[in-house]
């Protein structure tokens, strides 16, 4: 039972119960109002006939309905004129109607759709007292075949139960997706806490261990001491970068900052973003290429600083995964009202398992978190592009390298 409620399946049962109850109540309500409409239709002629019978008058037989009357002792009264033809199954009909007589004599009305042997499989039965000089002298009944009425009522039931079945399937499908997504979100939150704990713990552990070593004067070699200080400085910078990225991502996701847009010289943006990486490429023995198409992109309408930030993230990512003597290419493409900037590397590519989650927090191709960086860059890039009203996507096939594409609206 605990597992049932912890899995949130009780939500499904509550919603289904409400839906089914509503459908059944609707069906019963339709039946009730249907019978009420028949009463309003048939009671007036029955009342008139009852008044005539009470005075001793008789009526002519009709094909629309059958009238039967009984005195208080259950003896049938003749209500039709001499030319009336008695029912061939008169005894069976009388037996059925006699069962309602005590209720009628007590002054109540009988209304029902029921099978009447000898008359019809389903008939509308309306009965009421015969009153003469303020005294109940018997009961009178009107019977009308209910084939057409029953068919209409069955049609209502069919519609309701079909709606019930389809609605139940849709609700179950929706709840299944909802519960699955909720469980995935819960798991993502747990993974996020675990990942952020790991990312914070690693530099802090290094800083703590090195600081304790220096404080205890275990290391006396000046070169070794300088090396330890360099590591502490590097780990501190890494920790600072991680915290800054966390704050940036949180601000982007929760505050939904509105970025100012203007006409942007796209070529200038690409060159400005690529400039520091051109220097880094020489140091790392990598080739950074900006194609002619990228150099000749038309002006776009966006936020210059944020596009530079996104391109910096994508170039940084490409440089991390490009192999030694590898190549990073900035290419471009124009399609209709959009311009695309494409950042590619010839690294190992992204596995198909990771690809759908590449823009998630702390998503790294090496799940052991051994690569440098906070693991938040692509999440930040994704949030920026979303808030700019643009798209970012990735293309990668196993070991054939990776290409990140961002779209910009042409000015």
TrEMBL record:
<keyword id="KW-1003">Cell membrane</keyword>
<feature type="transmembrane region" description="Helical">
    <location>
        <begin position="156"/>
        <end position="179"/>
    </location>
</feature>
<dbReference type="InterPro" id="IPR003661">
    <property type="entry name" value="HisK_dim/P_dom"/>
</dbReference>
<keyword id="KW-0067">ATP-binding</keyword>
<dbReference type="GO" id="GO:0000155">
    <property type="term" value="F:phosphorelay sensor kinase activity"/>
</dbReference>
<dbReference type="Pfam" id="PF02518">
    <property type="entry name" value="HATPase_c"/>
</dbReference>
<feature type="domain" description="Histidine kinase">
    <location>
        <begin position="195"/>
        <end position="411"/>
    </location>
</feature>
<keyword id="KW-0472">Membrane</keyword>
<keyword id="KW-0547">Nucleotide-binding</keyword>
<dbReference type="InterPro" id="IPR004358">
    <property type="entry name" value="Sig_transdc_His_kin-like_C"/>
</dbReference>
<dbReference type="InterPro" id="IPR036890">
    <property type="entry name" value="HATPase_C_sf"/>
</dbReference>
<dbReference type="GO" id="GO:0005886">
    <property type="term" value="C:plasma membrane"/>
</dbReference>
<protein>
    <recommendedName>
        <fullName>histidine kinase</fullName>
        <ecNumber>2.7.13.3</ecNumber>
    </recommendedName>
</protein>
<keyword id="KW-0902">Two-component regulatory system</keyword>
<dbReference type="InterPro" id="IPR003594">
    <property type="entry name" value="HATPase_dom"/>
</dbReference>
<keyword id="KW-0808">Transferase</keyword>
<keyword id="KW-0418">Kinase</keyword>
<dbReference type="InterPro" id="IPR036097">
    <property type="entry name" value="HisK_dim/P_sf"/>
</dbReference>
<dbReference type="GO" id="GO:0005524">
    <property type="term" value="F:ATP binding"/>
</dbReference>
<keyword id="KW-1133">Transmembrane helix</keyword>
<keyword id="KW-0812">Transmembrane</keyword>
<dbReference type="Pfam" id="PF00512">
    <property type="entry name" value="HisKA"/>
</dbReference>
<dbReference type="InterPro" id="IPR005467">
    <property type="entry name" value="His_kinase_dom"/>
</dbReference>
<keyword id="KW-0597">Phosphoprotein</keyword>
<dbReference type="InterPro" id="IPR050736">
    <property type="entry name" value="Sensor_HK_Regulatory"/>
</dbReference>
